[in-house]
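Take a specimen:
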Amino acid sequence: MHSLETQLPKEMYFDPEGHITPEEVYSLQNPIVTDWVAKLWGAQRIEDYRAKAAREGVAIHSTVVRDEDAEVIAAGDVLINSSNTEGHLANLVVRAEHRGRGIGQAILFDRVNFADTKNLALTTVLSPQNNLRTLYHKLGFSPRMPSARLLYRPNHSSDK
C-alpha cells in the first residue's frame, strides 16, 4: 500500500512530537464527552485513561495538528495492544471551527500510514452520525459484522 497524502492547510502543521496535554484535549471537545470516553476505559478523567493504558501495556501514539500560533486544532490516536499486532484508531477530533477543511482526513491518513509502518491491523468504532464510512472503506476498513459500527482493517505488510 502506498502512503496516503496527508496535506494540511498552509497555516497548520503536524506537531512532530505528537504531545498533547490533558488541557489541550479538553479544549478540543466537550469535557463531558472526553470524560465519558475515559470512563469507557475505567478511568475518571482523560489523564487517568492515559495512565491506565500505560499500566496495561497499551501504547498511545498521537498525532497533533497545530496552527501557526501553536494552538491545538485537531488530534487523533492509535492505541497499540501489548503484542504490537493491532491498533485502535481513537479520539480523532477536529476543533469545530476548523471542520470541513480536510484536517480530519489528513489525521486519518497519517494514522493509517503510521499503522502500515508498524504492520498493525486497525480497528475503529464509528459514531452513529459519522459520515466517513465511505472513506474508511476506501482505506481498507470493513465492518466486523453487517451494519456494525466496529470497523476492521487487516495489516498491509504483505502489500509492501
About this structure: Residues 18 and 63 are 5 Å apart (CA to CA). The chain has a mean pLDDT of 79. The longest helix spans residues 103-117.
